[in-house]
Amino acid sequence: MLPSRRQFIGRHLMIKGRFADLLLSGRKVTTIRLGHVIPRYEEVIVHGHGRPLCKARIKQVTYKKVGELTEADAVRDGFNSLSELLKALKDTYGDISPDSGVTIIELEVEKVFTELDQSDPYMGLNPVDVARLGLRYLRRELSQGDVRVLEEVTRTGSLREATLRLYGSLSLKHRRAVRRVLRRVLRMLVERGLLGGGSSGAPTTH
Known about the structure:
5-stranded mixed β-sheet; 24% strand
């Protein structure tokens, strides 16, 4: 049943065009991919329209053949009918057959990036997610030192551990240095329209 073609999804998940809007509106709760797709993590950052859209949790992964897809699968994926879903799969992947394997990934949107609270130091985001977004969208604009800080934060998943690895110390001075990089990166993401919030102003860089 499972095809030989296997793919892995890391921390980032791409969704095209109108499907991204359907996900945010709640009309789309799954994404269907050709092949045997294996998520590496339970939470992902979803991207579309050239920007980060939201943070979502992968609730369930189901493997089927194209011929086993149902009208209910189509509706949950944001389509009006199974025939519309099948046409979209063919348009995206080319020739598919009833025996072609697909992966249905069920998503639950946890945080929409246009609905963030900019009065919070990290706009309500996990600092590790700020680091991931900074590396994905701003890497060329950042200094080597800033990139190194972001890489350590994403690698360790902890501001404390990142500070210790970067400086060999957990002094207040060094902890503040790491936080300053993250808040500056967050401000850049806001200024470039990649993140937005419900309150006016941008997060401070103190």
